[in-house]
């Protein structure tokens, strides 16, 4: 059940039947290195999770390749979309940590911060010089138009004889 819900996108943190749910069970408890992990600074944790959690969808339509990335809380100035040689699309950015005040008492820090970078090698039919990107409501959409595929012209050959 837990495996199915996690594969289908269920929320692992709220599932009391999931033995790997982080709020219920620490899967590293009792291991010799668990005390070492406890001493890892939370900023390193957040930077790693920011890199890992940047999810991007890639959809191909008859006209274009469309990439969508959920980047809540980021402005378009915080995100970079670049095209490199060899038909590589690169999406990168950074979410800065919230300033910590001396008298603040944090109970939980779950929002990630840090840098992220994703690279995609595009197929040969991508028009790399016509890439467009827009950011709306925390969702980055990158559109890479495709070259029209010309159908080969079929010519009938008369058979003599």
Keywords, please?
161 residues, 3-stranded antiparallel beta sheet, disordered N terminus, alpha+beta
* Gyration radius, in Å: 23 Å
- For the record, give the distance between the C-alpha atoms at the N and C termini, rounded to a whole number: 71 Å
Average pLDDT, all residues: 75
Classify the secondary structure makeup into a structural class: alpha+beta
| Total number of beta strands | 7
- Counted by DSSP, the helix tally is 3
Biggest beta sheet attributes: 4 strands, antiparallel
The low-confidence runs, each spanning 5 or more residues with pLDDT under 50, are 1-26, 33-52
Helical fraction: 10-25%
Describe the strand arrangement of the main beta sheet, using strand numbers. Answer: 1-2-7-6
In terms of DSSP E residues, the strand content is 25-35%
Shape label: rod-shaped
Q: What's the SSE pattern?
A: HHHEEEEEEE
Compact description:
With 161 residues, the protein is an alpha+beta fold. It is built from three helices and seven strands; from the N terminus they run αααβββββββ. It starts with a helix and ends in a 16-residue tail after the last strand.
Explain what you see:
This protein has 161 residues and is α+β, with helices and mostly antiparallel strands. It has three helices and seven strands. The chain has helices spanning 2-7, 34-38, 42-52; strands at 56-60, 64-70, 79-84, 88-95, 114-121, 132-136, 139-145. The strands form two sheets. The chain has a four-stranded antiparallel sheet, with no helix packed on it.
Task: Record the SSE blueprint.
Elements: H1 2-7, H2 34-38, H3 42-52, E1 56-60, E2 64-70, E3 79-84, E4 88-95, E5 114-121, E6 132-136, E7 139-145
Antiparallel strand pairs: 1-2, 2-7, 3-4, 4-5, 6-7
């Amino acid at each position: 059940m837990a495996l199915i819900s996690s594969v289908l996108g269920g929320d692992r943190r709220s599932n009391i039947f999931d033995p790997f749910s982080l709020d219920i069970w620490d899967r590293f408890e009792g291991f010799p290195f668990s005390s070492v992990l406890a001493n890892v600074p939370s900023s390193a944790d957040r930077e790693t999770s920011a890199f890992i959690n940047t999810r991007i969808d890639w959809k191909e339509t008859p006209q274009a390749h469309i990439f969508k990335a959920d980047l809540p809380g980021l402005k378009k100035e915080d995100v970079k979309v670049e095209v490199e040689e060899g038909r590589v699309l690169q999406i990168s950015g950074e979410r800065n940590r919230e300033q910590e005040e001396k008298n603040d008492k944090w109970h939980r820090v779950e929002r990630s911060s840090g840098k992220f970078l994703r690279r995609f090698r595009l197929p040969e039919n991508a028009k790399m010089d016509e890439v467009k990107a827009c950011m709306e409501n925390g969702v980055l959409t990158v559109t890479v138009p495709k070259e029209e595929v010309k159908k080969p012209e079929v010519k009938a050959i008369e058979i003599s004889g």
